[in-house]
Amino acid sequence: MGKLTLVFGLILAVIGVAGYVDTGSSHPTALIPAYIGGVLAVCGFLAITEDLKRRKLWMHIAAGVGLLGFLGTITGLIDMIRMAFGTMFPHPVAVMEKAGTSLVCLIFVAFCVRSFVNARKARVAV
């Protein structure tokens, strides 16, 4: 799961850098997804270990960061739906970036929950 966390961190970093470049490098808040991705990447790197307790710790931290990332950007999904129905926004790139960040974080948290449930079932079965 640590390697998958690295992948999601990289995806968020790409979203953040692309959004920053797309805004003409004038809005540093466009880099927020890259910061979230950086934290996920560090957690994923630290979770690649044979030590079960360390792996659990870092993956739970990563899941928490992903959940906070989703909750902090969920309005982007709502705004994206509104934009699809014709609502105009002053910064459509920001709306798309926020929606993308929200969706990536949601998918990441879903993978984490699935992994945690499977790990618990495997531990109980032993």
What's the total helix number?
4
What's the β-strand tally? 0
| Gross geometry | elongated
Q: By helix and strand content, what is the structural category?
A: mainly alpha
* Fraction of residues in helix: over 70%
- N-to-C CA distance: 21 Å
Low confidence ranges: none
Give the amount of beta strand, in percent: under 5%
The biggest beta sheet is recorded as: none
**What is the radius of gyration computed over CA atoms, rounded to a whole number of angstroms?**
16 Å
Average per-residue pLDDT, rounded, comes to 93
Q: Helix-strand pattern, N to C?
A: HHHH
Number of domains: 1
Layout of strands and helices, then pairs:
Blueprint: H1 2-22, H2 32-47, H3 52-84, H4 92-125
Write structural notes for this entry.
The model has no long low-confidence stretch (mean pLDDT 93). The protein has one domain. Helix 1 runs antiparallel to helix 2, helix 2 packs antiparallel against helix 3 and helix 3 (52-84) packs antiparallel against helix 4 (92-125). It is built from four helices and no strands. The protein has 126 residues and is mainly alpha-helical. The chain has helices spanning 2-22, 32-47, 52-84, 92-125.
